[in-house]
Each structure stands twice: as structure tokens, then as C-alpha cells.
Here is the input.
Amino acid sequence: MPTSTSSNFIDVLVNGFPEDYKSTRGIPRAKFIEDIEAELSTRKMTLEELMEQLQQQHSKYHMMEQSLLQQKFNLKHKLPEIERTIDAVTYLKEQFEEDNKEMSTYFKLADNLYMNANVQNENKVTLILGANVMVEYTYEEALELLQKSQKNSQNQSEDLEENLAFLRDQKITTEVCVSRGHNYGVEIRNKERAKQQKKQTKEQEQIQRAMQAEQAKQ
Here is the structure.
């Protein structure tokens, strides 16, 4: 079940997730690294080790996202099926209450092949619950079960949307940290290169002065 209403979810999308927000699916919050150098000092690790951890973290977020997207896809197809079943059972119930004990309908024999048949309307319907399990219900019982399943699926859909939005935030945060780590590495290498060039320039100047001094003696 989602932890927030639809209106709260819209507010989150507009204003962002609060610091104390906790994902209902256990998605960990990504830490934004403001100062790479300070982070390395605090955690006593090299830049390469930090970058490796961030890449692994990003990969985990990506895997989580793919899993949630698959669940969203499944729900997207499940909800219309539930709604169609509710409509069908509602129709049967209405016909039964109008004392229509026999109805003419079509049933599917194969893809694109249907056959006309007369069926007895006896206030009974069989629902497939999954895993090859079929259970017989009265129309009232079937509608109650289907409407409960519909509500649960809608709640799951909202929960998935919220967690996907939170997950994308964490992916973006991680990507920004990877970029900052890369830029820090470039900065360090540039400083080291400048330091080496300065050292070489100084050594060359010393050699030139030594050569000039030697020439002056001659």
C-alpha cells in the first residue's frame, strides 16, 4: 500500500522528496557528495575506489528500475482485464435479477473464432485466481473480490509511480556524483601535470644557469 495519497504524490513531484522520505520498496537514498576531496579523506579511500562504488550503486539502481518498470507493465495490462471482468459479471448479475435465466452469447474457441451458445444464468461464475486455480463464486462474491483486486492494483500502480520517481532521483544524484568525481580526477591530474611542468622548467633553468656559469669561467 502506498504511504501517500495521490495529492501528496503530486506535491512530491513538484517539490521533491523530503529528507525523511522512505521508499516503501526499500530503495536506498543516494548521498550527494558536495566535496569529493573531503569525502575521500573521511572514508579513507582512493578516488578509483569511490568511483567504483558509485558505478556499482548506479548499476543497482538501474536493475531496480527495470524490475519496477516490468511490474508497472504487468499492472497496466492487469487493470483493464479486471475492469472488463467486472463489467461482464455486472451484466450477468443484472440479467439474473431481471429473471433472465438463459442468455445467448458467444464463447471463444480459438483466436478469432467464436461460437454462439445459450447459457444458463444461475447466479454463479468461475474466476481464474492464477496458478491454474479456478474458484466458483456468486455474482455478489465475485464482484466484491474483483473490486477489491481492482483497488489493490490501483494502489500498487500509484505506489510504483512514486517509487519510480524516487528511484530516478537517486539515479540522477549518483550520476551527478560520478560526474563530480570525474571532474575532480581531471583537476588533480591537471594540477599534477602543471606541477611536473613547473619542476621540469625549474630544472632546465638550473641547468642553463650552471652552463652559463661554466661558460663565464672559461
The two ends are 93 Å apart (CA to CA). Residues 1-5 have pLDDT under 50 and may be disordered.
